[in-house]
Structure formats: C-alpha cells, structure tokens
Specification:
The structure holds two protein chains of two kinds. Chain A is an alpha/beta fold. Helix content of chain A is 39%, strand content 17%. In chain A, a hairpin with a 2-residue loop joins strand 13 and strand 14 (374-376). The longest helix of chain A has 19 residues, at 345-363. The radius of gyration of chain A is 24 Å and the shape is elongated. By secondary structure, chain B is of the alpha/beta class. Chain B folds into two domains: 56-250, Glutaconate Coenzyme A-transferase; 260-494, Glutaconate Coenzyme A-transferase, CATH 3.40.1080.10. Chain B is built from 15 helices and 28 strands. In chain B, the strands form six sheets. Chain B has a ten-stranded mixed β-sheet. An eight-stranded mixed β-sheet of chain B has the order 17-16-15-14-18-21-25-26. In chain B, strand 16 (331-336), helix 11 and strand 17 (354-356) form a beta-alpha-beta unit. The longest helix of chain B has 17 residues, at 291-307. Classes of the chains: A alpha/beta, B alpha/beta. Chain A binds chain B through residues 15-16, 37-38, 40-45, 69-73, 129-130, 133-134, 330-332, and chain B through 260-261, 263-264, 397-399, 425-428, 451-452, 487-489, 491-492, 494-495.
Chain lengths: 405, 520
C-alpha cells in the first residue's frame, strides 16, 4: 500500500470545506469515493472536477476519498492539488479563473484608506466567501498565526485559489505571510495571483524587507508581472520597535506599518491590558517612525470580540495617538472602528470652513488663508483637505458638499 | 384504502392527487378562489349527566383515560406542541397505543420536534398509519423516503384550524398537555414545573374533539385560573410525574444569530423596512424565533428607540427580545400564541399587555377576518425562493422534507412579507429557477433580502418606487439567482420518483403541491 495523505477540514461544525484523503496506486484507474451533503445537487460536477484535476496532473491511478461539506469548486481543487503535490512532484498549477472583480485593478493606491483590515484564517475557506460583504478596507488571508503548523502547506493552495476566484467586494487583497525566512516560500503562491499588499509579521530589520522584495522581483520577472505589491511590516518585538524607522524607511513599496501587541507584550514578558499603558512608548515609536517615513501607522487588533464598547475606547485612544487604522478579527469590529477613525462631525465642519477659505484665497490669488481674523497655516489646510477627502470616501459627506454650504 | 389517486394539475401548475388516504381532496384553485359553504363541523351533543357532579374528572393513568375514550384502530389523535422539544406526552400516547396493540392511528400534531423522532418506530410497526401536521428532521426524511404507510398531509397552523372546523379532519381524541390544571380540566401554561406560557394551539382541539384528555404534572384544586383550557370541554384529567423536560421546552434555537453574515442580512432588512416606510410609529410586525428573525427584531428595537416610536403590537411567538421591547415601551402589545423562552413565560404572567391569543384569531381561514392581514411587516424564513417569488419552507433542494409549515403560509397575508435569507447555504443556492415544493405563491411574497442584494417583487410597484435612490443594493431576482449560480455552480436536478408520499395544503384546505418520494 502506498502513502496516504489527508488535506482539508472535516467535522460536524465545518462548512463550505472538504477533506481529501489520497493514495496513489499502481493500476485500476481513479477510485473516487464522494461523501457530500450536496451530493444530489453537485455530486456529478464534483466527480467531473476531480477527474479533470487528475487528468491535468497526468495521474491515472489513485484512491481518493472526498468528505465534502458544501465546498465551492476553488476549495475542492485546492484540497486535491495540495494532497497530490505531497505525493508527487509537479511544476504545474491547477488554477481557477480570475473573478471578474479581481482583474479590474491589480494595483491599489499608496494612500488608500486602511482604517480596517479584517483577518481571515488562511485555511478556513468558509469564512472567506462573504468577508468582503462587510466592507473592511482590507481583507487579510492569514498564512501565519491563524494556521496550525501542520496545515501551513495546504493553506497556501486555499489562499492562492481564493485570491483568484473570490470577489473581495472592493476590499484591498492582503496576505499575511509567515515569518521570514519561511514566509518567503509563501510568496510563490500569492504574487502572481493578484495580491495587493503583503503583511510581514515579526519584522525586526530592514534585511527582511530586502529579502521579500528580492523574492517578489524574481517571481514578477518570471511571470511578466508589472503591478506594484505593497508591504506592511508588523512590529512585534522590542528589537522591531528599536529598528522601526529603519524598517519603515527601507523600501518605497512600504505603505504602512503595524504593531502586533500580543506578541510584543509576550516578548517583553508582560500582560497586555485594555488600557495599554505598557505599550504606550512602543506605539508612539511606531507612529513617529511611520510619520517620519511618510507611511500609515496602523494599530494592533483588539482581541475581545464581544466587548464592542471597549473596542471603541481603544480605537479612540489609538486615533488620538496618531494611528490611522486597526486590525479586526471579526466582522463586527469593522463598524465601530470605522465610526471612530472616520472624521467626526465637528472635525468635518471645521475642515469645511478651512477648505472654503483656502479655495476662496486661491481664487482671489491671495497667498495667505484666513478664517475671520485668524490666519491658517499651510499644514492646517493640508489636514483639512485630508479630512474632507476621508469624509467623502467614507460616505460621511457627499461629493457635492460645497453646494449645501 | 388508496394512499393517493387521480393526479391533476392544479391552478399553480403543480401535479397533485385528488384522492388522499381514501378521501377526496380539492386541488388548489388560486388564491382566494376556494370558498367552502354549509355549516361548521361540530362535536356530539354532551350533557352534564354523563360527567361527575362534583367536577372531579381525574383518572389514575393515561392508559385508563385512553381506554375510557374508546381508543381503537384507525382513530385520529391530536396533540399540540407548546412543550416544544421537551414534550413527553405525544410519545407516551403512542407507546400506550402500541402496548394495547392498536393500529392505523392518524397523528395530528400541531407541530413535531426532534424529541418526536421516536414516533418513527410506531410508524414502522403500524401503530400510526400516517401523520397530518408537520414532520421535521428524521420524521421528514422518513416521509420523503417513502416509508410512511399512509399519505402525509402538511398544513399550516391556520390550515389545521380550518381543516378541523370544516370537518376535513375529525379528532377522535385530543390530548392536551397542561403545565397546570385542576380536576375539572381547566388548565394553563403559566405555572408549574413545565410552564410554557401559552396554549394557543389547543383551543380548536378541545372544542371540536369527541373526547378530550388533559394531562398535567401540576394538579391544583379547582379553580385553576386563568383558564387557557376550559374544563367544560374536558372528559378526563390525568396526573403524571412529568409532562415535559423544562430545559428543552424553551429550546436553544431562540437566540440572536452570531453569524456576521446573518447579522448583515438582518441589518439590511431593518434598514429596508425603515426606508420603505414600513417601520414607523404605530406599526405592527411579526418575526419568528429563528436567529436571523430575532436579529431583525433587535434592529427594529434600536430604530424604534432612536426614533422614539412605539409599535402598536407585535405578534408572537414571543421571546426575551420581544419582552424587552414591551417592557421599555417600544411595543404596546404582544399578541401571543406560543412562548419560546422563560422570559416570555414570565412576561405572560406579569404583563397585562402580553396577551394570550389563539390561532383561531390569528390565522384561521374560517374566521370573520384574522390578524395576519392586519400586520404591517412579517419576517419569514424559506428553504428556497424561485425567480417568480414562489416560496418553499418544507423541503430542501434535495427533495427531503425537513420542516413543517408552521404559521408561514398564514403570515404571507400580511401587508408586507419579507424573507431574509442567505443567497446560498453552504453550496446550495436559495434563489432557484423553480421551488422544489410550492408552499406559498409568489404573488404573496414581497421582498427577499440576501447579503448580496434585495429583490422586490415586481408586483410591489409602490415599494420599488419608494426604494428608488436608496443606498441599499436593490436588484432583480434573476440577477441574484445568476450570482448564486456563478459562485456555487448550477445545481443538477435531484431524482424524484413518480410516487406521491405527502401533500401540502394551502390555507383554505386545497392541495397546493405534492411531496414526492426521493430516489436513493
């Protein structure tokens, strides 16, 4: 009997996933055993897909058991391919077609709003399908801490296929790779498949950034890719905090830098509190480094998904310090975070007045902007313009707000 | 006796039998087309001479009571479902009947629950010939696998009252599990270890049955007040140790969903009702006990508080969420036929505006008007909706029967029927070309809310007009179906045999569709 591998997830509570148990055999063709809760509706198409994949890889003899709990085709094919590639060597990839939404714009803008980024475990396809409907600014398919060590390999196939086959409904497509150097191998599975931004966890020095960019360069050349892939290093250790500016300033495709407080407090051997006094200096260091490097400082995640009120408090504090966004580990956290980081009514009203005064001065050819008898400095004007832009982008005011003044 | 015979195509285009379990039935004629005439069905004339003058109708055991009621082959036995998944009485009745070697009974429950799966053994050994009511879970699968001896009949809560009142169904023995009762037979559900709040489904049973047995585990001295069961209709009272398992009477299903996707659908539904002007000061609504419906209710609550509006009434089944609205003044009345949790039971005891209402008033086709049509908004579920807005609530797309109709068909008569559903469950599209089983005609279903868009029935030009310019994703139902198929793939048709295993009744007693045996 040959070696048997098992990929994917199956249990009473798992939905939209499947488990594939595969053994390569010497003869007798493909022996496919399908157990599926959607068998009467999709049994034939699952069997046909299985045949197609084995045919694609030129495998004629195998015993396959598929325990399916309503997995979409991109999941079934990822599970089968991950199983096959543990038993054979192949340089071919069985890729699902790009979803029409994904080929519209492969590059996102450097300044794009990144207030909320929603983490989705990289080996849980059921959570990916609707993630974009909750309208986070970014969706992170996580190959790092949210995936168990023995599932890291198969998760790459799920993440790759999800990048291609799923609509993210306008959210930026982000992947958190594994820690460098292991995480470099993740890049092969994501760079050619429409990723917008890569989060580099436990980043401690600029050399790690260099390694990532070199690998991206090699893959891009191989696949004739021209689009920009942005980076967001995550600082999660004392060493990382001390090197924060060096890291933030080390490459022109770094658009944001985040702090990861669970690992940071663990590194310091202290307990994370809701108030966050223990990480105040580190967070300030991240913010200063980002501002100095001209990139977005992004705060950690808030881990209690039931306590939305404390999340709101934490977000308020975070915004006051200078962060421009936070991570989310549950869709419920998106709205409170958006509400907090979005410009507030008073801010918007003040900004409107400044912008109008500024435009007025411009049209009259006056160099100095004044509001009543008060002079307005250029940085204040710049901030007001940014506030208005953000307010429009977040739907707080309409594009034609001037008409209503 | 033929299980079924003489198939015809009814007004909805569905193939249905005209003979079921040896009796003639009428195919669906179209909404509002069928009008039975004559006089209502009535029980025999009773006299007080036949009952103990001291009012003590207690009898030692349920078996004795059943014998005294003349239990024999072929009778129709009714039970009700207020004890929900904690009910111990229905199973006990058939255990006794089996012991007495009685065969070919018809079971007429107002609903069945997982605790009634044990009934399968009595279907298998012939104690029960068939079920008229609802068949959930394994009982449903048993039915659509073609194993039931007779032909199953599915009715809505209102349809059950209609069938009893116009004589389509004759109840030989009604068994009423009462959380509290006195020896005369007065009973209620407000007190006792198995208190379940309301007994709104039992009224028609005891008024029309030949024989009525009250079973209680909390026998009190006369008078048991208030009387939700009127003892003057009761033949025997039996005291048992336990009528139900309290922890299962209020089952765990009545919690707000935690699924972010369902919450999104619920939020969109509430926003729709607000923008369409349906949710307003003085309005009325009904939402079931499903997780999404409860979430809709919770969003309604937030809006009512924020706008300082009061809903005039909401229709039960009641839950703690509804009680919260009543107690903070967001809702003025709860009209209730069943309580889903302990908070609702408490409220029923304490709040005068939490009112016990029978399905008689709420849903019945043979009433002089009913409440369903007076309700502004109803929120319902469905297993499938087709591109003509027809709804299925009883079978899954694989053809297996899994749910009862409940009050679903009756509620369709509300001023606006809204069905919040995911566009697909796991991989199974909810919006399809044609429903597997037709339970509700599309002309009565107004709005479908999915996470990927809201479809308004083209007949509701008023709603379409109101929602012009809304930020909500209003879409054509065909687009939604197409999107589901893009994501899931087009499902193939499951294989059904040509054998009818059950029928679905419309609210007026006509046959709207058939259930077909599913090929293995």
């Amino acid at each position: 009997m040959g070696k048997t591998v098992t990929c994917g997830n199956q249990s009473e509570h798992i939905r939209s996933d499947c488990q594939v148990i595969l053994e390569l055999t010497d003869n007798d063709g493909l022996d496919i055993q399908l157990n599926s809760k959607v068998k009467s509706l999709y049994g034939d198409s699952i069997i046909a897909l299985t045949h197609e994949i084995f045919n694609f890889f030129g495998v004629e003899n195998a015993r396959i058991i598929i325990n399916d709990s309503g997995a979409l085709p991109f999941v079934i094919s990822a599970r089968i391919e991950a199983a096959l590639k543990q038993l054979m060597v192949s340089d071919k990839d069985y890729l699902p077609d790009f979803h029409p939404d994904n080929s519209i714009s492969l590059t996102t803008s450097r300044e794009k709003s990144r207030i909320s980024r929603l983490y989705i475990p990289g080996n849980s396809p059921g959570l990916m399908i609707n993630a974009g409907l909750h309208h986070p600014d970014g969706i992170i398919l996580d190959l790092e801490d949210a995936v168990a060590p023995d599932k890291k390999y198969e998760a790459r196939f799920i993440v790759r296929n999800a990048l291609r086959a799923l609509s993210f409904y306008g959210a930026e497509r982000m992947i958190r790779i594994n820690q460098i150097p292991y995480g470099l191998a993740d890049l092969d599975f994501i760079i050619p498949h429409g990723v917008n931004l890569i989060l580099i966890p436990k980043c401690e020095n600029s050399h790690q950034i260099k390694l990532v960019n070199e690998k991206i360069g090699i893959i891009s050349t191989k696949h004739y890719l021209t689009h920009k892939v942005w980076l967001m290093p995550i600082i999660e250790s004392a060493k990382g905090v001390m090197n924060a500016f060096e890291i933030a300033n080390s490459a022109n495709n770094i658009v944001a830098m985040a702090i990861g407080l669970e690992d940071f407090t663990a590194d310091l051997g202290i307990t994370r509190t809701k108030e966050g006094a223990e990480s105040f200096v580190a967070r300030s260091q991240i913010i200063l480094s980002c501002k100095a490097a001209g990139i977005q400082p992004i705060d950690s995640v808030f881990s209690d998904i039931e306590d939305l009120e404390s999340l709101r408090q934490s977000a308020l504090q975070s915004k006051a310090l200078g962060f421009v966004g936070m991570g989310c580990i549950h869709p419920r956290q998106i709205k409170p975070i958006h509400d907090t980081f979005a410009p507030q009514i008073e801010e918007i009203e003040k900004a409107k007045k400044i912008v109008i005064a500024y435009e007025d001065a411009q049209s009259k050819g006056i160099g100095v902007v004044a509001l009543g008898t008060k002079m307005i400095d250029p940085p204040v004007v710049k901030k007001a313009l940014h506030t208005i832009e953000l307010a429009i982008n977040m739907g707080r005011i309409s594009q034609s707000w001037r008409e209503k003044q | 006796m033929k299980k079924y015979d003489k198939l015809v195509t009814n007004a909805a285009g569905r193939l249905v039998p005209t003979i079921v379990n040896g009796r003639q039935v009428i195919p669906f004629q179209g909404i509002g087309k069928h009008r039975p005439s004559g006089r209502k069905y009535a029980p025999h004339i009773f006299t007080v001479l036949d009952y103990p003058r001291d009012g003590n109708k207690t009898i030692a055991t349920l078996e004795d009571a059943l014998r005294m009621c003349g239990l024999r082959d072929g009778l129709t036995i009714s039970t009700h479902h207020h004890l929900r998944d904690g009910d111990l009485i229905a199973n006990l009745v058939f255990e006794i009947a089996d012991r007495l070697k009685i065969r070919d009974l018809v079971w007429l429950p107002s609903a069945s629950f997982p605790c009634h799966d044990t009934i399968i053994q009595y279907l298998e050994n012939g104690t029960i010939d068939h079920i008229e009511g609802s068949m959930n879970g394994p009982l449903g699968k048993y039915t659509t696998s073609g194993k039931m001896n007779g032909c199953a009949v599915l009715r809505s809560h209102g349809g059950r009252v209609q069938a009893i009142q116009d004589g389509e169904v004759h109840i030989d023995i009604a068994i009423l599990a009462a959380p509290t009762a006195d020896p005369f037979g007065n009973g209620n559900a407000l007190y006792g270890p198995s208190a379940c709040g309301v007994l709104g489904y039992s009224l028609v049973d005891y008024m029309y049955a030949d024989k009525v047995i009250v079973v209680t585990d909390n026998l009190v001295s006369f008078p048991c007040m208030p009387m939700q069961i009127e003892g003057s209709y009761v033949d025997f009272v039996v005291k048992v140790d336990k009528i139900g398992l309290p922890e299962k009477i209020v089952s765990g299903t009545t919690r707000i969903t935690k699924s972010p996707d369902r919450l999104l659908i619920a939020e969109m539904t509430a926003q729709f009702c607000l923008e369409a002007g349906l949710l307003k000061d003085g309005c009325s609504f009904q939402a079931g006990a499903g997780g999404t419906s409860l979430a809709v209710e919770d969003y309604f609550h937030k809006i009512l508080l924020e706008k300082k509006w009061k809903a005039r009434f909401c229709f039960g089944g009641s839950t703690e969420y509804m009680v919260r609205m009543l107690e903070d003044g967001s809702v003025e009345y709860i009209l209730d036929a069943q309580a889903f949790d302990l908070e609702a039971v408490r409220s029923m005891r304490e709040n005068p505006n939490h009112c016990d209402v029978s399905v008689f008033h709420a849903y019945n086709f043979h009433s002089k008007g009913n409440y369903a049509g007076m309700t502004d908004i109803v929120i319902l579920g469905a297993t499938e909706i087709d591109i003509n807005f027809n709804g299925n609530v009883v079978t899954h797309s694989d053809g297996h029967l899994l749910h009862g109709i409940g009050g679903w068909q009756n509620c369709l008569h509300a001023k606006c029927t809204i069905i919040p559903v995911p566009l697909f469950r796991d991989r199974i599209p909810v919006i399809v070309d044609e429903v597997t089983t037709l339970c509700g005609p599309g002309s009565l279903i107004d709005v479908i809310v999915t996470e990927r868009g809201i479809a308004i029935n083209p007949l509701r030009t008023d709603l379409l007009e109101k929602m012009k310019g809304s930020d909500l994703p209003i879409r054509d139902i065909n687009q939604l179906k197409h999107e589901a198929e893009l994501i899931c793939g087009k499902p193939s048709k499951p294989h059904f045999s040509k054998e009818v295993v059950g029928i679905v009744k419309w609210v007026d007693g006509t046959v709207i569709d058939s259930l077909w045996k599913v090929e293995v």
